[in-house]
Amino acid sequence: MTNKPDDLAAIAQIFDNAHFDGESPSQKAIADLQRRQNQLIDIMDYVVKELKENRTQMNKKIEDILK
How far is CA 53 from the centre of its chain? Predict the structure, then answer.
């Protein structure tokens, strides 16, 4: 048996309706996923920046060799 999205939403709602202090477990999970997503975006931005710098340095070296 597979879970339909409505089933999963109902399960999450039941879980959230349990009495917890502060955020519900699903809210905490969503916040954690968003934090991880932001970390991945930061890493990707850094990698792109480094690749651009390396490309610029390589192009400069090629120009120097061709002169």
Answer: 24
- Tokens of residue 23, six digits: 């955020």
d(CA 33, CA 26): 10
Residue 58's domain comprises 5-66
Angle between helices 5-17 and 25-66 (to 10 degrees): 120
| Long-range contacts (CB closer than 8 Å, 24 or more residues apart) made by 28-34 | none
Query: How many CB atoms sit inside 10 A of residue 17's CB?
Result: 9
Structure tokens at 6: 């409505």
Q: What is the pLDDT of residue 30?
A: 86
pTM for the whole thing?
Answer: 0.56
